[in-house]
Specification:
Blueprint lengths: L7 H8 L1 H11 L2 H25 L3 H15 L6
Helix pairs in contact: 1-2
């Protein structure tokens, strides 16, 4: 189990009514909205990059498969 970076008093405050109000107030602030937008843009960019990596051209894949099959095929004597 990873150690918590919150102290006991911070945990109590976060669960208290005052802490809940403070969290709601922050989440509706412009600073929080901007932070969320930046996170979403970074996430979208990472997902797009991963999708490009996964989508290899089919022609290249079949050429590589054919090449490997030819190399690994048993050679017959003639």
């Amino acid at each position: 189990m990873t150690p918590s970076k919150w102290t006991e008093s911070q945990k109590r405050y976060a669960l208290s009514p005052k802490g809940l109000i403070a969290r709601k107030k922050y989440q509706s602030s412009e600073k929080a909205k901007e932070c969320r937008r930046r996170y979403q843009l970074k996430r979208k960019a990472r997902l797009a990059e991963a999708k490009q990596i996964v989508e290899a051209p089919q022609v290249q894949v079949t050429q590589e498969v054919d090449k490997i099959e030819k190399e690994s095929a048993p050679k017959t004597k003639q």
